[in-house]
Amino acid sequence: MLAKLCFLILSVGAIGLVVLSLRQQRMETYHEMAVTQRELASMDRKVQFFQSQVAQREVPGNVTRLAAGLGELRSIGVDDKIFRPGGYGMPDTAVADGTPARRRAVEVNQPR
User: Fold this and answer.
1) CB atoms < 10 A from the CB of 105, how many?
2) Domain boundaries, the chain
3) Nearest CA to 25 among 14, 36, 17, 35?
4) Beta-carbon contacts of residue 84 (< 8 Å; ≥ 6 apart)
5) What percent of the chain has pLDDT over 70?
6) How far is Cα 55 from Cα 91, in angstroms, rounded to an integer?
7) What DSSP letter does each residue of the chain carry, written as one string?
8) CB 85 within 8 A of CB 92
9) Which phi and psi (to 5°) does residue 68 adopt?
10) Higher pLDDT, 60 or 10
11) What is the mean pLDDT of residues 41-63?
12) Residue 37 pLDDT > 90, yes or no?
């Protein structure tokens, strides 16, 4: 009986230590998240400050003059075919009411 009692006390103590350990890990994780959020907020404030500095120093005329000096400006990372009717990203639905059946009917009836 004494052995069972000792085993029970040790088991409860071990379970208590595991629960406290998990709680401590969770608290450390919350602390790290709070620190990271504060750092992100600080970086956001710095970005806004620098954006306002750039906006104060540049006037729209200078920006358009600089952009004209660069030549044709294109977006990067996006293929133009995606946004053109008939491109591989978007079907050509500009015919009649735009339904696929109507589009096929118009294409079939067009003279070649």
Assistant:
1) 13
2) 79-112
3) 17
4) 90
5) 64
6) 40
7) -HHHHHHHHHHHHHHHHHHHHHHHHHHHHHHHHHHHHHHHHHHHHHHHHHHHHHHHH--HHHHHHHHHHT-S---SS--GGGTSTTSTTS----STT--HHHHHHHHHHS--
8) yes
9) -65, -35
10) 10
11) 86
12) yes
Given a cut of 60, is residue 3 above it in pLDDT?
yes
Find the length of the chain: 112
What tokens does 105 get?
């009917």
Closest CA to 81 of 69, 68, 93, 90: 90
How many beta carbons lie within 10 A of that of residue 103, not counting itself? 17
Report how far residue 89's alpha carbon sits from residue 79's, in angstroms, rounded to the nearest whole number: 9
Cα 11 from chain centroid (whole Å): 47
What is the b/e burial string over 88-102, where b = at least 16 CB atoms within 10 angstroms of the residue's CB? Answer: eeeeeeebeeeeeee
87, 81 in Cβ contact below 8 A?
A: yes
